[in-house]
Specification:
The chain has a domain of 250 residues: Alpha/Beta hydrolase fold, catalytic domain (Rossmann fold, 3-Layer(aba) Sandwich), CATH 3.40.50. A hairpin with a 2-residue loop joins strand 27 and strand 28. It is globular. The protein is built from ten helices and 37 strands. It is of the alpha+beta class. Helix 4 crosses helix 5. Helix content is 15%, strand content 36%. The strands form nine sheets. An eight-stranded mixed beta sheet has the order 30-31-33-32-34-35-36-37, with helices on both faces. A four-stranded antiparallel beta sheet has the order 1-2-3-4, with no helix packed on it. The two termini are 17 Å apart.
Length: 627
Amino acid sequence: MQGVGCAVRTDHDSIWSAEQAAAASADFAELHVAHGGVLWVAFDPGLARCGLFFCCDGVVRELTPPGFSVRSRVYEYGGGACCATELGVAFVNESDQQVYRIDFAVDGGAHSAPYAITDAAHCRYGDLSLVPAWQALLAVEESHEGDVVVHRLVRIGLNGKREVLVEGADFYAAPVVDAQGQRLAWIEWDRPNQPWVATRLCLRESGEPTRILAGEAGDRSLQQPRFDAQGRLWVLSDQAGWWQPWCVDREAEPQGAPGDHAPAPWQLGGCTYLPLANDELLLTRFEQGVGVLVGCAVRTRDLDGKTIGAHSAPYERRLAEGFTRFRSLAADSEYFYCIAAAPDRLPAVLAIGRSDGALHIRAGGEQPLPSAQLSRPEPLSCEVGQGEHCHGFFYAPVSSGGCPPLVVFLHGGPTSACYPVFDPRIAFWTLRGYAVLDLNYRGSSGYGRAYRLRLAGQWGELEVEDIGAAIKALAASGRIDAQRVFVRGGSAGGFSALRALVELPFLRGGASLYGVSAPLALREATHKFEADYLDWLIGDPERDAERYRRRTPLLQAGCIQAPVIFFQGGLDAVVVPSQTESMVEALRERGLAVEYLLFPGERHGFRQAAHLAEALRAEHDFYQRLT
């Protein structure tokens, strides 16, 4: 592959600095309708903490005082760290992982200081919800009992009294109770499965034994059970090839058009569809990786195949057009609510009029760059393998004197995805004359079950093939300079970047941010949730020992010809510093240009704005020296 050299422009440094990009990594999560308003969690990179905010009558106030941060660490990735109670809110405090209450004043005045209602130092809590019929919380509990980690579903009284409801499976998620407090539904799964491979939908009715309603054969992934206003149970199931809503309590067909209606469930507490009154649903769906939000009618068929229910004709109403990712759906009588993202603005808390679809931004949604300084995502699909395709989003540089250099972004997971939304890091690169490819290689979520499971046994090879194919396609179309291509990724994305540097000798350089360089070392140290993940991604360490050897960047360091920059957190317990330092030393022994930045106070994934900015600036300077 040939390319034409050109100078990389740097005159946009004053427009969008590394500090501005780091500050723009603020985000929202876990939105709930509560007390006549809306409750959400907001991450502040400047403080590296998550605050709890409440909006009512247009007034937004923070509920969490200094010293508190709202974040669960169940399964390490957390989620479901807050919920409304009848008197206020309950939340999981990041530092001790205990459940706290904040009660509102009856007269609407100042709220109470947070006070703990659990006191179990060996336990973590997540997926919180209030069960009004019980006047108690429902939660996933993670108990660290010596060398054993046990997960359960528990009931926590608002006075702190705890009761175990369900135990015995390896993992639990998304517990939900009907309005009468008589039917408890949940998702569970056992090792060696991951929740995006095979789970079970279970139900326990008052006084009755547990029933498995779906998934017993291990042939589908189910998530997000919900009871509707009529007491019918719904769930997202990929039995038809996509995560789609199904009504469990009657003969039904999947709802909405084909497409994934949720991402991979790394975190608890997700809400990407809502059953509404009058046989309607609020749905978010991915269409070739682009999120849409729709209201649609429920359609079901009887045993003769005839359409029944309130709506017999297809019906969908698209909402919040212009936004391309939606999370944390909620609704009251007047509005639909969600956390939304778009290609041209920061994440936003939206209120959408149910009657007229009018948009109201409750928080966030700022447009940090004028249109002329913004690169828009262009969907990319290129053929790989035997008629298969990989997908992603291409961002052209804002200005360039010729064929630009390319930075390939590789998401973590690897069973995860990138989205066509404003990413402050991508803006940083495109304003400096670089093109960016945000790649959803085979194995990413958002493109159906077959695409998601394609990485089984193939990690370290299949995505590298996709990287090479996408670069070749962009070079052939004259959109990039193939001699100046860089790959970068964090965690699992760092592993894929290192594997690409081993297998693709034309790459000019790369960056590994707390990336996996020794999979077997990770396997020995990783937590319960991912304990079998590498076996699924690569194979059995004994039976497939040669496969591990070929795909271990540390053992293949002699094949890397391009310079690499490494970033590492000193407190990282997933990819420990010694793993990265061994990789750095192996490359330095060969005389390669290698840089290594250690951030002593960071863990697996950087959170502090100053460190995010420093890492971004150092990566840019490193590539500049190579162009």
